[in-house]
Amino acid sequence: MSNQFGHLFRISTWGESHGGGVGVVVDGCPPRLSLCEADIQIDLDRRRPGQSEIVTPRAEEDRCQILSGVFEGLTLGTPIAINITNKDARPEAYREMENAYRPSHADYTYDAKFGIRNWQGGGRTSARETIGRVAAAAIGKKVLSSLCPKLEVVAYVSSIHHLHAKIDPETVQFADVESNIVRCPDAEMAARMIEHIKEVRSAGDSVGGIIECAVRGVPPGLGEPVFDRLEADLAKAALSLPATKGFEIGSGFAGSLMRGSEHNDHFYMEGDRVRTRTNRSGGVQGGISNGETIFFRVAFKPTATIFQSQPTVSRQGEEIELKARGRHDACVLPRAVPMVEAMTVLVLTDHVLRQRAQNGGFNPTP
């Protein structure tokens, strides 16, 4: 069903934004890996609301609780269930949305599909669902550190609205990303982004932008031919996140403006390793990783909830005006960085385990 993701490393998320809690069940994690709640909490703290002056003020600690699958600090190889209790839910703030469809939200489409919906903060469509993904990816990082210790995933904000930073995916460091509240490793541009988000918020509006992700130290051979191409799975993973509207890898759409003689990545030998002199493929060729840095971009739309009156319709088909209530991000990107990282980790963990199961690991360079 649509609430599950992955093949060998499979997750199933559950819960609603203003219900009792949210969480995830992770199946397929190898046994005997060291794991505790503190390992998971690190990334949940990066995703949680209320962490800075430019995100939603909802006061949630998002403390995780491991319910199963771990014994005496080690994974058992059985399903790992994680629960995060909602502490600051305010469903009454959304009463007006019970019979009104918020513009660009999933209110109407959920009604069209199911004939029923949880109108309290969007229910299942809320970005609060991504807590389970981030928690599962913390476990995935444990798997990757065991099987691919050189692999490193770094995501960061590269643009917000009209403000664009130039960051080298080969050298960007996690510490630089986390050095400011907007998670842009360009300090000067980050300051401008923060001020712009504040201005937009004060006007009752919102903005979107682009998150880039670099995966370094990737072994060649990850991915499957045809339907489960690595870039296809990364695209599905990224576009499954709330508010995403675009995905491109390597040269992306700009590659359509180039000739083959300009775009091709020429091979050469670096010792016993096959390398490419350029990386317009974004680290993936024929759906399989080639060992170069995987580099992709994800576009996020402006937050749909804005504090301005907008025309809409009711469930009864009446044309009305609606002004949003509740607590929301004027820009989702700072909190979406760990979400993009999480979905990337989940894809890579699944493909590493699939490569191991099918081929016994990674084949030596011919």
Concise overview:
With 366 residues, the chain is of the alpha+beta class. It contains 8 helices and 18 strands. A 5-stranded antiparallel sheet has the order 1-2-3-7-4, with helices on one face. It has a 5-stranded antiparallel sheet with strand order 9-8-10-16-11.
Topology, please?
Blueprint: E1 4-5, E2 10-15, E3 21-27, H1 37-47, E4 64-66, E5 70-71, E6 74-75, E7 80-85, H2 107-114, H3 130-147, E8 152-160, E9 163-164, H4 174-177, H5 187-202, E10 209-216, H6 230-239, E11 244-249, H7 260-263, E12 267-270, E13 273-276, E14 284-285, E15 288-289, E16 294-300, E17 309-313, E18 319-323, H8 333-359
Antiparallel strand pairs: 1-2, 2-3, 3-7, 4-7, 5-6, 8-9, 8-10, 10-16, 11-16, 12-13, 14-15, 17-18
Strand order in space, largest sheet: 1-2-3-7-4
Protein structure class: alpha+beta
DSSP strand count: 18
Strand content: 15-25%
Largest sheet: 5 strands, antiparallel
Could you give me the name of the CATH homologous superfamily?
A: Chorismate synthase AroC
Number of contiguous helices: 8
- The portion of residues assigned to helices is 25-40%
Question: What global shape is seen?
Answer: globular
Determine and state the CATH class.
Alpha Beta
How is the quaternary structure best described? single chain
Name of the CATH architecture: 4-Layer Sandwich
Provide the domain count: 1
Kindly report how far apart the N and C termini lie: 40 Å
Stated plainly, the CATH topology is called Chorismate synthase, AroC fold
> What integer value in Å does the Rg equal?
21 Å
What is the typical, i.e. mean, pLDDT? 92
Q: Give the H and E element order.
A: EEEHEEEEHHEEHHEHEHEEEEEEEH
Catalogue the unreliable spans: none
